[in-house]
Automatic annotation (TrEMBL):
Main location: membrane
Protein name as it appears in the record: PGG domain-containing protein
Keywords: ANK repeat, Membrane, Repeat, Transmembrane, Transmembrane helix
Transmembrane segments: 335-355, 391-413
Domain of life: Eukaryota
GO cellular component: plasma membrane
Subcellular location: Membrane
Organism: Capsella rubella
Length: 435
């Protein structure tokens, strides 16, 4: 007994990826004959709750596994740390022969879940053990336990979700082919708790290779994006209900606004980026156009009238000196024109900064940056050219210094402005509640 206890699996390491056994300590796996003579050994658990069957399964010792199961098959479903059974450990190490032996002796063990709600199939997919995935799929098909293919973990992910996320084409094809034809289009569109289908995960987490083939296979199997899946076919969370249903249920403007607010786990980042690109482009276009045609237009002629003492003050105002191409508003109201230049420049420079960030990693990005720099200097030149002499200096300072510093100022002011907004909103809610 003492000799065996010194080799109990005390080194079942709390490794976040494997929780595996140290191969150098596998000498504790002894012959089946001795185990039968001293069956008490199989009841000994280490501090992590793992039994000798866990150790033998992780080490791939099929004969030892057979011997222990011959003593008592209930050890097959004994759970250790994190709810892992011997089948879970064998799956994580890709011990196919042990997997077959365990399932053959206790078919119900394929249903056992870890504390994260993961079955042996989930773990096989996560650890990229393709052979183990194929063995488990064959066994559950043979034992008529197809429902295990659709089982979800605590996050609502099926094995297909995980295979798509891991970009494992072979595993994905095995899982899709195992689903019966009559229910395939339904099951491949299963949604997790974030309202994402397997196809959503593929699109949201792109890789450099293999995505196209996986995408085509999923489409061929009837896969759809989460937003396109009908509520009659797929389980929907409240956040992914259709707009029509939500609008009918919304009794106030506030609830409607809340529904259309961007949700991190519901809306695709690629779609959000595309929307931001469109908005930033529209702002840049509108502000650039405003710099060319300011409010009130520009003078079409030049006039430097002689100042006469006989002229009334009203006529003197009307006959102010001006030069063709300068802003009419700036000639008569320098303060208003300066404010216009100030806010227009902020909008233009921030929109260019957004475009620069959103196009990181794009092809031909250097050429795109050249275009944006040309637009930037064109805007500044236009604004200073149409500015009348009395406000020209202010416009030059705004379009040169402020425009260059605006993106940095926005980052510095973002947190204080958000805090101020939250404070004002809370005060407004208190006032409304009092009313």
């Amino acid at each position: 007994m003492d000799a065996f206890e010194t080799h109990l699996p005390k080194e079942i390491v709390s490794d976040p990826l494997h929780n595996s056994f140290n191969p150098r300590r596998e000498e504790y796996v002894i012959g089946g004959k001795i185990l039968r003579q001293r069956s008490g050994f199989v009841f000994d658990l280490d501090k992590e709750g793992f039994s000798p069957l866990h150790a033998a399964a992780a080490a791939g010792q099929v004969e030892t596994v057979k011997a222990i199961l011959g003593i008592d098959k209930k050890f097959c479903r004994l759970k250790g740390k994190d709810g892992k059974t011997p089948l879970h450990l064998a799956t994580m190490r890709g011990k196919i022969d042990v997997i077959r032996e365990l399932v053959s002796n206790c078919v119900d063990c394929v249903e056992d879940e870890t504390v994260q709600g993961q079955t042996a199939l989930h773990l096989a997919v996560l650890h990229q053990e393709t052979g183990a995935v194929m063995a488990i799929v064959d066994l559950i098909t043979e034992k008529n336990r197809i429902d295990l293919l659709y089982k979800k973990d605590e996050q609502g992910n099926t094995a297909l979700h995980l295979a798509t996320w891991k970009k494992n084409r072979q595993v994905m094809e095995v899982l899709v082919q195992a689903i019966p034809e009559e229910s395939r289009s339904f099951e491949v569109n299963a949604m997790n708790k974030m309202g994402l289908s397997a196809l959503d995960l593929l699109v949201m987490f792109p890789s450099e290779a293999g995505d196209r083939e996986i995408y085509e296979k999923l489409i061929e199997a009837g896969a759809q994006r989460g937003r396109d899946v009908g509520t009659t076919n797929v389980e929907r969370t409240t956040s992914t209900s259709t707009c029509q249903e939500t609008t009918m249920e919304c009794g106030s403007h506030k609830e409607l606004v809340k529904y259309f607010t961007f949700k991190k786990h519901r809306d695709s980042p690629s779609e959000a980026r595309s929307a931001l690109l469109v908005v930033a482009s529209l702002v840049a276009t509108a502000t650039f156009q405003a710099s060319l045609t300011p409010p009130g237009g520009t003078w079409q002629d030049s006039s430097i009238p002689a100042v006469s003492q006989n002229k009334t003050s009203a006529n003197a105002t009307i006959q102010q000196a001006h030069i063709a191409g300068q802003s009419i508003m700036g000639t008569f109201n320098g303060i208003a024109f300066t404010m216009f230049v100030f806010f227009n420049t902020i909008g233009f420079s921030v929109s260019l900064s957004m475009l620069n960030i959103l196009t990181l990693g794009f092809p031909l990005r250097f050429q795109l940056q050249i275009c944006m720099m040309a637009m930037y200097f064109s805007h500044n030149t236009a604004m200073t050219s149409i500015a009348p002499d009395q406000v020209k200096l202010y416009c030059i300072l705004i379009t040169s210094i402020l425009a260059a510093a605006t993106p940095s100022l926005m980052r510095l002011l973002e947190k204080p402005i958000n805090m101020l907004g939250q404070f004002l909103e809370s005060r407004l809610q208190k006032v409304c509640s009092m009313i």
